[in-house]
Amino acid sequence: MGISELWSRGFALFPEAGAGEEDATDGAATRGARASAPHGTDGGGGGRPRWGSTAEFILAAIGSAVGLGNLLRFPYMVYKHGGCAFLVPYALAVVFLGVPILAMELALGQVAQSGCVDALAAMHARAWGIGAAATAGAFLLASYYCVVLAWAWCFLAATWQPTMPWSDGRAAAFFVDDVLARWDGGDGTSGRPDDRDGTDGAVAAFERRGLGPMNWWLVLGLTLTWAMCFLCVKRGAESAGKAVWITVPLPYLALFVLFFKGIFAPGAGAGITAYLGTIESNTLGKGEAWIDAVAQIFFGLSVCCGAMPAYASNCPRDERCGANAVRVAIANSLTSLLSGFVVFAFLGHLAMTRGVDVADVADGGWSLAFVVYPSAFASFGVPGGQIFATLFWVAILTLGVDSAFALTEAVVCAVCDRSSFCAANRGFAAFCVCFCCWCLGLTMCTRGGYYVVDIVDAYVSRYTLTIAGLAECVFVGWVYGAERLRDETAVVSGHAFMGKGAYFPVTIKYVVPAALATMLSYQIAVEAREAYGGYPRWATNSFGWGLCVVTPLSLACVGAARPLDVGRKFCHVGGAGARSAGSYSYSLGVSDEGVGGRTTRVTDGIRTLDRGEVEMGPSGI
To answer: What is the pTM of this model?
Structure first.
């Protein structure tokens, strides 16, 4: 047999493959016909839903990448690590980590016309477990992400009361006691949202009482969020493509309004100076700043969770996936910078109204969104504060829903790729996935649910996605070959992919694995010194190590032990000498076992052999 092996039955790269015995066709004509397939048509994806245009796909990818981390985490990281100095490791992380790994995932989905599970299985029959682990991460992310959006629904509903509940300076109490209804520490108070101190604190109450009863208002908000996600993913790219024209521009509109309001507010200058007006170069010598920069771009681009391959699988094969990766990465970074100006302009104003320094009000994470920001809006009075608070919550909800249904699409795509029944009944498959995520989210709507959100958030980002990303890059870079993927993608799409130099292979094989391995080692070392958050062992073992680490790793191990036959979807690209001899194959189909006379449709110099095995090489050999 030739260079490539086929491990499957009945799976064709192009829909007409395997339809009957046919002679090899002219490669140039076939490539031109398929490459010119318009958006919204099949174009070789076996009936997959399609994006209406390149712009629609770019919007969807930006919506997936840009999320709550851009608004809540990035600004505080810049402030924490020396202002402008932090932009140096961040920019390097974008160029040498974010863009290559995003381009790799877009190429996998676009060339294979499948989600990450089938795409990796097509490259090697034992690699599907890596994609399954990443998809499990997407499932967990979506489950807790929608609970956070349920919190935002509660704040949005409370905004238009005659007097905002947090206008008297009790934003923290409103969030902890009224929205979360979190267990108190035995003294009648629950403290701040991130309070984890002492044996008599809120965490100790969580340890004694467990999850507790569910809060119906959070269940209602969770149900509303998942209903929106279902409507966006029930028809795949067809329904998501319509939604992103609303859910992606809307938060930008809200952010620009808040930006212009914030920069002209009294005290905004002090906040912006604290954000980017300082340059502490000694930060560059601290490993923590580099780790945070890598983490910000890695998690901020929604890579290694199956979302980007799932979205790219709905594109025609002639999309410029390398250029699209650059566009999405730039949009993500610019959004983060804009969010920082919005955040710190309001923090400067809040600090001025309280007569304190910006450092006294600056905070990151959930406290920034649900404690600090409501306090800042309350200072504008009624109805101004209500209007700007509404814009903020709309931005939070639309940013979150975009990311949530992208994560959901990753799971639905994997399910539909594996099951013909689910593919034919996509709405039912989408409902089942949404329902399962909703059920897991119910545990986070309890009185102890905030701690479950915190644990799942930490362990998925620290371990699940990092390990999946590391395994994916090592496999593509060293087992399959980064150069091979680059060359095959260029042949399939008809466009240069990430240049012809060493940038893509070197980053995928060396830079990205080294960065992720360092980040993983750092997180393990931190946890070895102190258990995360001081939470009870039953909580971290069940929701952290068990749910977020052991389960995805088990899927990866099962994948390594049990090959998954989906068929090869990639071609082998020969060397320079072969290139001069003729054109190259970029498509193949697979014959059905047990069906006599069925062979593959072949193009550009692939010779059909017995039992669907093909030998690949230049035309005329």
So the answer is: 0.84
